[in-house]
Every structure is written in C-alpha cells, then in structure tokens.
Design goal:
9 strands, about 35% helix, two-stranded antiparallel ribbon
Length: about 260
C-alpha cells in the first residue's frame, strides 16, 4: 500500500488500492524520529510529499527522494524546487549510486514491498546506518520481535544482528484516506556497531532462512536439507525450533556447521 498524497490525487489513486496518510502530526513525528547518524537521507516512495515537507530544506540535511510514480515525481519537482528526486525503483538500484557516503532511509513504505525494502537494507547494511519507517503493524512487530515470540522470524534475526530496533508507535487506520483494514506502526533501526559476524555470513543467512522456512520443525529436521554435518551442532539446539534461538545462538550454530 502507498500512503502519502495531496488531496487532489486521492480520487485518482483509490483505484490502485492505495491508502494515503492525512495526519500531519504523524508525518512530523516520523521525520523527527531520525536521530542524525548521517546528514545524508533518502526518502523512499514520497508520493505527494506529506512526509517530504518535514525533511525538505532542513539545515545541514543532504536530502534525496526516490519515487517510481511519474505523477508524483512531477508534483515533487513543482512543489519542492531543488529537491533531488530520483525516478525509479529503490529495489532495482545499487545503493552505492545514490550517495557516496552512508545514508539514512526513511519513508511511509508501500506495504506490499516493505519486507523487500528491509532485505535490501540488510544487504546494504554497511551503507545504511539508520532506518525510520512506517509499516503494516504486523510487519513492524515481526521486525522488532524477540526470541520465543510467534512473530519472531527471518527479518527479526537478520536485522537485529546488525541493528538496534525500536518499535516507536502504533498508527491508527483512521488517519488514512481511505482507511486500510489494518493498523500501521513506525519503527527505527540504528546500526549496533557490529561490522561483521564471527561466522560465515552467507551461511548464517542460509541457516536462518532454512530454520524459519520450516519453523514448525525442530532444527534437527529443518536443517537436514542443507547437507551439512549436523553431528557437529551443539546438542542443545537440535531439539529446538528456529524461533527459540537468539542471534548469538544462530551464530554459534553457523560456526558449528562451517
């Protein structure tokens, strides 16, 4: 789902199943949630600029926006002169081409690609020290979940390995036009200082994904498909399910498999 828009375009966009944030206070809170880890900021999917207006022109901010919709790009150019607007798909771009320095990511993210955006951030973690974004509430809860929770999953582990994650606040469905059927939530992620894991990181990702893709199975059964030496895995892990392991447990598990 997409959210921000000017009133004049809401009717035209409704046919696309989009939902638009109408509460300026929420937009300001999202913008103010950036902590300034870097002066370089990229807004993903600004639409008609409901969030953009609280970032545009901020002193000391090197602010860019990326938008895939042509109508929205034209609107941004006309209402925010001088704003560097990239017409394109964030998921298809090499982040190294956006800024020469590390940059923060912010946005009222389209719900249908929000998880993909987070996986892209994970892949670009050395360049993205901070993320502030609005997501569908269940996605936000999943990202911020702790071990043992039913919402704890692949994104929870991968992102918390490199980021401190904060669930900031819940957003009512009634501040959108038209109102969606679900609530939203805003989270903030900031790099935690871990530059590299003490294990094979590609295998770490594979182990995490394999464990959670068969989350009802014990790790003894879920990991068999990897064709790796399970006899080297600490016994205490084999009878557990993926949701019961912390990030450090997954690191230890990966070390034993490699």
């Amino acid at each position: 789902m997409r959210r921000p828009a000017a009133d004049g375009s809401v009717r035209a966009k409704k046919a696309l199943g989009q939902h638009f944030l109408t509460d300026e206070t929420i937009a300001r809170r999202i913008a103010d949630s950036l902590t300034g880890l870097t002066p370089h900021v990229l807004e993903i999917g600004p639409g008609m600029g409901v969030l953009t207006k609280y970032l545009y022109g901020k002193e000391g901010l090197d602010f860019h926006a990326i938008e895939i919709d042509r109508e929205s790009v034209d609107y941004l150019h006309s209402h925010y002169p001088g704003l560097h607007v990239i017409e394109g798909d964030f998921l298809a771009l090499d982040p190294a081409t956006l800024f020469s320095e590390p940059f923060a990511v912010i946005g009222n993210f389209p719900y249908n690609i929000s998880s993909q955006i987070l996986f892209k951030v994970f892949d670009s973690r050395s360049r993205v020290p901070e993320v502030v974004g609005m997501f569908q509430k269940e996605v936000a809860e999943r990202v911020a979940a702790q071990p043992g929770s039913k919402t704890y999953g692949i994104l929870s582990v991968l992102l918390s390995a490199f980021y401190n994650i904060e669930y900031l606040f819940t957003v009512s469905e009634h501040v959108f036009n038209p109102p969606p059927k679900v609530k939203s939530a805003v989270i903030r992620m900031r790099r935690n200082g871990v530059e590299a894991l003490p294990c094979d990181e590609s295998l770490f990702v594979k182990v995490v994904k394999t464990g959670f893709n068969q989350r009802r199975k014990t790790l003894r059964n879920a990991l068999r498909q990897l064709d790796l030496p399970l006899d080297a895995v600490p016994v205490r892990f084999l009878s557990l399910r993926a949701e019961q392991l912390s990030v450090n447990d997954f690191i230890t598990l990966t070390q034993s498999l490699s």
